[in-house]
Amino acid sequence: MGLVVDHIHKDFGKQKVLKDINFKIENGEYVSISGRSGSGKSTLLYILSTLDIPTAGDVFLDECNTKKMNDHEIDVFRAKHIGFIFQFHYLIPELTTLENVLLPATNLKVESSKVERAKELLNELEILDQIHKYPSQMSGGQQQRVAIARALIMEPKYIFADEPTGNLDTYNAAKVMDMLDKINRESKTTIVLVTHDPDFAARAKREILLSDGRVVN
């Protein structure tokens, strides 16, 4: 069934940020959400990815109404099926690269079975040599690639990326986008990407354009 958005509204006090949003994303699609600053892109992504709830309307992931799931059910669903990539890496400063990558697996108590996969991801992202370093010992681009490996460690069905290249130089930004392209192509992972970069948005197979909290395409 994929991801279904049914008449989503989101208000912050009197401010109406999202207004009657409706669309469907099929399993394995690569979709970008674009629009001007303040159009509601990140708010929509947070609702789609279960990090926030709508004021009205429903989001269905694999036929599950996320609004009706309790906190434990949401936590387990996220850990098993969702990978998050943000503009800021949100690595745990006290953990090494390997420990940060394995964090979702650690939370599910399956970290030992994911160590080799973690090394494979770090190698693909060209940071295997950083495996025992702490975030403070790495560049911004290296830290972001660690965050991407963390998002991929459980081989999630869905990846939600909010401006994942926003703090990266041209080389590292292209590296990140190439990795997302590859994951979508080879693993059929559903990717929903928020970006202000039209070239990166164009990499997606479909674009959802927002203007003033509404879908306009």
Topology:
Elements: E1 3-12, E2 15-25, E3 30-34, H1 41-48, E4 56-61, E5 64-65, H2 71-81, E6 82-85, H3 97-101, H4 103-107, H5 115-124, H6 140-152, E7 158-162, H7 170-187, E8 190-194, H8 198-201, E9 206-211, E10 214-215
Parallel strand pairs: 3-8, 3-9, 6-7, 7-8
Antiparallel strand pairs: 1-2, 1-4, 4-5, 9-10
Helix tally? 8
**Shape type:** globular
- Mean pLDDT metric: 90
- Which structural class should the secondary elements be placed in? alpha/beta
Distance between the termini: 22 Å
Sketch the topology as an H/E string, one letter per element: EEEHEEHEHHHHEHEHEE
Report on this model:
With 217 residues, the protein is of the alpha/beta class. It is globular, with a radius of gyration of 17 Å. The strands form two sheets. Strands 6-7-8-3-9-10 form a six-stranded mixed sheet, sandwiched between helices. The protein has a four-stranded antiparallel sheet with strand order 2-1-4-5, covered by helices on one side. It has eight helices and ten strands. It has helices at residues 41-48, 71-81, 97-101, 103-107, 115-124, 140-152, 170-187, 198-201, and strands at residues 3-12, 15-25, 30-34, 56-61, 64-65, 82-85, 158-162, 190-194, 206-211, 214-215. A hairpin with a 2-residue loop joins strand 9 (206-211) and strand 10 (214-215).
Give descriptors for this structure.
globular; 26% strand; six-stranded mixed β-sheet; alpha/beta; 10 strands; 34% helix; four-stranded antiparallel β-sheet; 217 residues
